[in-house]
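Forum: Protein Structure Q&A
Topic: Joint prediction for protein chains with partners

I've read a bunch of threads here and the consensus seems to be that you should model interacting components together rather than docking separate models afterwards. I'd like to see that in practice. Below is the full input, 223 residues plus whatever partners are listed. Could one of the regulars post the assembled result?
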Amino acid sequence: DVKVTQSSRYLVKRTGEKVFLECVQDMDHENMFWYRQDPGLGLRLIYFSYDVKMKEKGDIPEGYSVSREKKERFSLILESASTNQTSMYLCASSYRRASYEQYFGPGTRLTVT
Amino acid sequence: SQQGEEDPQALSIQEGENATMNCSYKTSINNLQWYRQNSGRGLVHLILIRSNEREKHSGRLRVTLDTSKKSSSLLITASRAADTASYFCATYDAGNMLTFGGGTRLMVKP
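Posted by a regular:
Agreed with the consensus. Here's the joint model:
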């Protein structure tokens, strides 16, 4: 079974802190994704990566950056956390094309105070 | 922006009944996918239907797709309490991104 793991289930950070969220998948998937999920807004794509060192902006990249130095690992970085980044963050991966089914991690609930 | 919109937003049924959720979308798609999310957890892929398919089955799940109406439905037959979750449709178009709707919250009462 594909396994996607995220570094933390719950995280509390202060405004202005630099925050790293890490995601690891164990199935050699080419594509990896970061979403945020907010009530009433569904899932919104922040960034995705289709190969090592490659990244593409999603719908809401502002305030975020990403890093993919190894195929299995995709990191989301909040350079200076703000309260409006309090959210559930979900990582996903997929094989070959982004049109294939995506496998999700358990999510990280981030609270910025 | 949301491509898919689910209807209803919330649904409450008794165990053993069927649950039907609908999804409408705006642009041409390559495929449409349905996902389930248990409370506070990640999403789990349920089924994918391609734009040239009209119906697909997987266990107690039945998905239909009507590209002329830009809509899809997910039917869960003989529902169980364990089916309580949020259900999302997601569409893939040529933009290389999967776009999710806002979800339907299903509650199945024992």
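The two ends of chain A are 37 Å apart (CA to CA).
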